[in-house]
Amino acid sequence: MTDSTATQDRSVQATVYTILKNSIMSFQLKPGTVMSTQEIATKLQVSRTPVREAFIRLQRDGLVDIFPQKETIVSRIDLQRVWQERFIREALECTVLDSVAANRTAENLAPLHANIEMQQKVFAAGDYYEYMRLDNEFHHLLFTIGGQELAWETVMDVSSHYARVRFIAVWTAQIMEKNISQHQRLVSAIEEGSAESAHTLMKKHLHQLETEIKDIAVKYPDFFVSAENSNPARRDMLLSL
C-alpha cells in the first residue's frame, strides 16, 4: 500500500465516522436503531471496511453496541453514564472560568456576545439543530478564551450520552430560551470579573438537566437503557442521581 493510498483510506474512514457520529448525535439515527454495514456502505458509496472501522470507533465513544455475528445498534442512553459525563464536564467547565475571567477583554468576549445573538435568532426560527451547534460553540469559546483547547477536546470525547440528552431537552422551546438567558448571565458575570458568580451560574446551568431528564425519560422511554431494565427500583435510583 502506498502512502497516498493509506492517506486516502484514513480520510474515507474519518469521513464515514464523522457522518455516522453526527447522525447519531442529531437523532437522525435514534437510540436502538439497527445499523447495517452493507446498507451504510452502499449509501455512502464506500466499501464495508471503513464502515466496520467507524463502528469500532463509535463503540469506543459509547454510541453503538456491537454484537458480533449478530448486529450493531445505536446505543441507548445510559443515565448513570450521563451523570458521570456531567461530573467531568462540570469540573472542567468551572475550572476554565478562572482563566476566562483573567483573560476577559472586550475583544476576547466579543465572540460570546455574537454567538448569543445567533442563538436568539435560531430560537426565534425554532431551529434546534442549529441551536445545539451554537450552544456547543459557546462552550467551546470559553475554553478557547481560557487557553484550554485540549480540555475542550476531552469534554467532547466523554460527552456522548450527556450531549444526546441535552439535544432532546432543547426540543422544548422553554428550555432553549432558559439556556440562552443563562448564557447571557454567565457572560455578564465574566465581564464583571466575578469568577465565583460565574462558577455558580455554570453549575446551575449544567445541573438543570436533573429536573428535565425525568420528563424526557418518561416521554422517550425507548431512548434509555433504564427503559429496558426490569428492576423499577434501579430506574428510580438512576433518575434521582
From TrEMBL:
<keyword id="KW-0805">Transcription regulation</keyword>
<keyword id="KW-0804">Transcription</keyword>
<keyword id="KW-0238">DNA-binding</keyword>
<dbReference type="GO" id="GO:0003677">
    <property type="term" value="F:DNA binding"/>
</dbReference>
<dbReference type="InterPro" id="IPR036390">
    <property type="entry name" value="WH_DNA-bd_sf"/>
</dbReference>
<dbReference type="Pfam" id="PF07729">
    <property type="entry name" value="FCD"/>
</dbReference>
<dbReference type="InterPro" id="IPR036388">
    <property type="entry name" value="WH-like_DNA-bd_sf"/>
</dbReference>
<feature type="domain" description="HTH gntR-type">
    <location>
        <begin position="10"/>
        <end position="77"/>
    </location>
</feature>
<dbReference type="GO" id="GO:0003700">
    <property type="term" value="F:DNA-binding transcription factor activity"/>
</dbReference>
<dbReference type="InterPro" id="IPR000524">
    <property type="entry name" value="Tscrpt_reg_HTH_GntR"/>
</dbReference>
<dbReference type="InterPro" id="IPR011711">
    <property type="entry name" value="GntR_C"/>
</dbReference>
<dbReference type="InterPro" id="IPR008920">
    <property type="entry name" value="TF_FadR/GntR_C"/>
</dbReference>
<dbReference type="Pfam" id="PF00392">
    <property type="entry name" value="GntR"/>
</dbReference>
<protein>
    <submittedName>
        <fullName>Transcriptional regulator, GntR family</fullName>
    </submittedName>
</protein>
